[in-house]
Protein 1
Amino acid sequence: MKAQFASFLAAAVLAASTCFAADTAAPAAPSFIPRPVQVELKAGAFPVADTLPIQAEAQTAAEAFTTALAFSGIKTIRATESANAVTLTLDAKLNDTLGAEGYRLTVAPDAITVQAAAPAGVFYAAQTLAQALTKDAAGHATIPALTIQDQPRFAWRGLMLDSARHFIQPDDVKRMIDLMALHKFNHLHWHLTDDQGWRLEIKKYPRLTAVGSKRTESPTPGNRNHGDGKTYGGFYTQEQVKDIVAYAKARFITVIPEIEMPGHAAAAITAYPEFGNKDVPNFHPTVNTHWGVLPYLYAPSEETFKFLDDVMGEVCELFPEAPYIHIGGDECPEAQWTASAAARDMARKNGLNADDPKTLPKQLHSYFVRRVEKIINAHGKRLIGWDEVQESGPTKTTTLMVWRNWKWAVQAATSGNDVIMTPTSHTYIDYGQEASKKDQETLVHKLGNGAEVIGGSLTLEKVYSFEPIPPQLTTPEQIKHVLGCQAQLWSEYIFNQAKLEYMAFPRACALAEVAWSPTAGRNFADFTQRLAVHEKRLAAHQVNYRKADGLPAQPERPLLGP
Ligand code: TNX
């Protein structure tokens, strides 16, 4: 930890030299990411002692402040009376002006004050403060005098981690939570199950992990149609999940679990074939060893719904703070349902038109999602699904993540449903970050197969250009249904933590700014200048971000392997 603080300060020195070109020049504002709403620089600077004394009536405020700064190696101590102290004030009335996550930060040469309506605001003020800290030529850490008033543009600032395709070690999930907090993200969407693995311990159904968490092999990097012959697996115990959820909560991040259904369910169906469409020809489920849209769907049977009710019961207990459960709902190939006499029978019994093979899958998808929504609601949560659930007739409380056509967002928001914007065009940061296919190929040539990506191209600039409100939404009533946006780190080609960081940063920094900062003043040239300084902070945290030249910041960490 000590070494980390030293390297943080070392980086801060570099940052300082970028900010303060000459003693006589007016200091430039620190290079904040995401950019605060309002920053005013004042004369002078607050000297930072080894340990920062804080005065706070509310224990929650002190904890939030201390937790935020600890990750950047800045220690605090509670003080009753002290010169050069930080005073933290919570005042619920500020909710009207600052919202639940906003803050007012004043740095004077002899005092720092933070005001917020709730501890989340104090936490974000501390993150901003950490970014403002620099070290002068004589080696003294200071924070320039300034006032900041800040609050997020969107309430949902998300990052999706896919632990199903490649397992992310619990400590690495926590590391991502810390890095998210640094950028003022507040939702971690955790993709926990898929065709290639079920990663969450469910006590009532032990085979989900005993069988469903293991696959016999994975695609060979660089040769995706061939298996590598190596067994692969991993899952989170319930204790580990509770620990991660609490860790996130202390950093004002809500974890939203995703349990995929009715498709992307091969791992679960391999563990419990009785919940699959077992009357279809060639029914031989296996935990998949390759990627793609794959055929195994849950059977729309009472047994399946009972199973899902049990699973949801345990999931809801593990994620007490999550208002939502994500059920996926995407990419359901129709073949198994049209081929299953039992599925048709079930459809008939429930008043669907079972004799029209063209519409039957959509009818069943809708029926399935609605049944599961009732289950989730009965457990006190709301349902989120990918935009496919819009096609199947959402209820009033269904919330969508729009990944395909923006028309689903327009349709949902105009009919009163909440949406989170997650379009492939701007938020799929599993896509290549090079501008062209050729550049991507050159990169793989340089770095090896660890640099392989699923496809596509999504540059930093494109992410930064993202405007989450679809232009067709014009009234405040419609616009308020866009809760925010989220970046997706699908992990088919994210083999380990070094690659995860390489894919995430700096594109997640750009998305953080899209989600937090006002649209007015958004400017890519200005962002890249601030990013150059911010990269030093990332480096101080040993983040393997993609450098502007395309290469990883930490070349010694292999992009392949565990
Ligand atoms: C589509 S987005 C998927 C995922 C893949 C991703 C790869 C969505 C709802 N489904 O299963 O991992 O593309 O980019």
Protein 2
Amino acid sequence: MDNFDVVVIGAGPGGYVAAIRAAQLGLGAACVDAWLGPDGRPALGGTCLNVGCIPSKALLDSSHHYHNLRHLLPAHGIEAGEVTLDLGRMLARKDKVVKTLTRGVAGLLRRNKVESIAGRATLKGGGRVEVAPHGAGEPRILTARHVVIATGSVPVRIPAAEVDGDRIVDNEGALAFPEVPKRLGIIGAGVIGLELGSVWGRLGSQVTILEALDDFLPAADRLIAREALKVLTRQGLDVRLGARVTGARPHDDGVTVGYEDAGGRHECEFDRLVVAVGRRANTEGLDPAAAGVDLDAHGRVAVDAYGRTSAEGIWAVGDAVAGPMLAHKASEEGVAVAERIAGQAAHVDHGLIPWVIYTHPEIAWVGRTGAELDAAGIAHRTGSFPFLASGRAQGSGETDGVVEVIADAATDRILGVHVFAANASELIAEAVVAMAFDASAEDVARTIHAHPTLAEAMHEAALAVAGRAIHV
Ligand code: FAD
Ligand code: NAD
């Protein structure tokens, strides 16, 4: 029997970060993970590194270069003759990026003296965790004073469109189509639908996205969602709102999809269909009940504000618990739980988790939307600045987008920042830092921003809160 201070189950961004932080704090830590890569060998990093954040961003970047070469660079006076696409090479590059990073996690665990154990873990109660190795071999029993559940999430399935791994796929299949589908259908205009729809649209697919809700991106600020829908539609994404899929039938030449909307019943033909209707917490094979770990009504591991489950000494983080399913949220919870196990005070501010959707322009936000503040009866003032008025955006030829800063009407404290911009994922970091330090809109307005930069739009939007933007 192997004894540890902490056993972490799952080596995604929640789990491997928790294990490393625990080891940094002098605790004896092990990290168990069941993921196998395409070569059948253990691949650390979870959903994010293997089939999520990293491969999707690799393909978003590749497809963006391809798109720019054909559509943006000619306006800069750069012509490259005939532009060809080698999809095999693009996918191989993505796979190489994934391999580099998953190996990197293995190296980080090694260097921090975290024991990495490959296999599927099951909770046995009394601080015991059983690990079934891949292939043949006896299960190993680990004991620990503390166990951290970081088992992540899996795609939601819908009976109307059963994933067959060929014509009908989830996010994993959509990162590895053998050819660019001529007609690509996507169910769900959420984060995955928009990102992977952008990838294949840029590579030449005619993309149709069927979204059950009547609103586009309901979690985003209305100004940003409106702008984004306009621009993404112009880019060729055919987003059909209020579309309830009734069935999907794969056949030799593609897949026939039926859906209903306010206009009646419709049928579409696609070469491939992606189902991207959300993800759910993964507790398969874990047997939480055996250890007295309660689940909530959505099947997530129930935790208190400190990441403690209903069982003494068992904690949980990341996609397996409530909250946004984001890698950085999982990692911050992992750090906080490891620090609490080590007896430190630790805090995750769930009100300050940035969101980014990596379309082009990117959509990013932190804090609350105008609609949320209206619903809560909080009086606020809004300042916005369009990139059309930014010198840097004009120079690069990327003038779509806007920054919106929302501040408390009484105190001027920033309550939310919403960005639709070419590099919104980077711009939003300034807003997160400002809000973490309780900045007012005036604080940002009085902070010097380099010229010419896209970040000046944040400065101008903060000035606009007080009605004193200069350049618009
Ligand atoms: P996971 O990363 O899911 O890791 C859980 C690990 O636990 C897995 O390796 C799993 O095999 C293992 N496991 C499960 N059960 C057991 C068991 N019983 N025994 C042993 N091991 C087990 N988030 C972002 O912030 N930015 C992005 O750009 C982004 N892009 C995404 C793109 C896609 C296509 C997808 C699908 C997701 C994306 N996400 C993104 C979300 C992000 O991947 C998740 O929020 C993040 O991976 C959650 O981390 P986690 O550690 O909680 O779980
Ligand atoms: P999502 O929750 O973002 O979007 C799912 C969409 O599908 C919603 O708009 C929902 O209304 C719609 N939908 C649900 N059932 C439907 C049905 N039967 N027919 C038509 N539409 C339906 O989920 P996702 O896109 O699958 O992504 C899952 C999660 O992964 C995200 O919520 C996010 O947490 C994470 N993720 C993050 C990033 C990022 O941070 N950039 C990227 C990808 C995924």
Protein 3
Amino acid sequence: MAVSVMDIEEGATTSLPGKLTFQVFMCSIIAAVGGLMFGYDIGISGGVTSMDTFLIDFFPHVYAKKHRVHENNYCKFDDQLLQLFTSSLYLAGIFASFAASHLCRRFGRKPIIMSASIFFLLGAILNFFAQELGMLIGGRILLGCGIGFGNQTVPLFISEIAPARIRGGLNIAFQFLITIGILAASFVNYLTSTMKNGWRYSLGGAAVPALILLIGSFFIHETPASLIERGKDEEGKTVLRKIRGLDNIELEFNEIKRATEIANKVKSPFKELFTKRENRPPLVVGTLLQFFQQFTGINVVMFYAPVLFQTMGSGNDASLISTVVTNGVNALATILAVITVDKLGRRFFLVEGATQMMVTQLTIGALLLNYLHLVGPIKSHAVPLIVLILICIYVSGFAWSWGPLGWLIPSEIYQLEVRTTGYFCAVAMNMVCTFVIGQFFLSALCRFRSGLFFFFAVMNVIMGLFAIFFLPETRGVPIEDMAEQRWKKHWHWKKYFKQN
Ligand code: BGC
């Protein structure tokens, strides 16, 4: 199975060099452009689906519905095909990340990152020239392959290339780049929304980060772990010397070698993960964290905020500006997580974030219930502004909790032998749930109206309780001590372990 520096005992690695060298810095930044592309995709689709020129070209019936004065507010954008435009990317991403988990073991991380950028580039080009819906969806599928390849490989690559001591920080920095991508996309949408064929530039803009990644990927090193795992020990040593800036890298080399040997004893990591009792707690917790991450309702805001603002009666411009504002808050709040997550702990943020999101969802639901009637815009000017402020509070709650931690915790709770496979399960859960939200939100909004926000509020209560009762605090615990120090002592999960 694939082995990574994630797979090396944290306790043992503390004696390894912890310096951030220029090589590691550059390689990580280049790879993290994968996060930028992911973010760009998340941020671009909402704005594009609310652009009139785009709707006229591809979804004229939705355009007509949107402008019918007597059309039900909550159903203006309800269209399975329109939603497929957003969600098809994630459907492709599920399969691509599964393929990537195998391919990057066989061929290394670097070619897979390179392929991710090529998929992105082709997807962006196809979308730019799209003449019909088929080309548009085809482009989204190619982008989805890029995301699947990138999301499975980039975090792994960064973890493998980074010195163990600063791995956590670099991991959350990946999420930060996602938020920057989302922000950039909403800004691009704002600029292009008034242009003729503006949507083409928005969608084609994905080519920019893709090109940066493609060019950059020629300059990154293959990770030592991947080289050593594939029997290329000498090459692995050479890269280790380069990225650590040291001649003596024997200690780290030996650790990677040892991790590889242990991991290679497990012939079927999937079987090991699903059948061994001790693996059940991290599997359930890691995968559920991603399930809950999506059911905070975050992508309702990320994908459909412009549509929501328009539903409340804001003009096209105002709704796109509102989206830039919420995405700016998203990026800023993520920085706070990078700085404080190792001090205040994971559970604190998860519970605080869930509470903050629950309160804001309830309030938004109540406001829509009272002010957004079935037909006609909201009469009050204050209500859309209050909803915007509430959405910002909601997004910040996500950005310092379930956003980054949904990715970080699954990377630190698995036993060595099943860590990368377990991580794949988290990525896959993310893609499946993002697909479901992307595909069904607008229809659900039409059917359940403001009740949808109450549904997400309830989900936030459930996930807060889950964090309190089922999530052991993982802050500061060496990865390999997780079972001894946490799972075996947990009131519920301890029954999955043989007690000493
Ligand atoms: C989530 C995405 C979400 C983004 C928002 C990520 O952690 O996986 O689904 O759109 O955060 O910043």
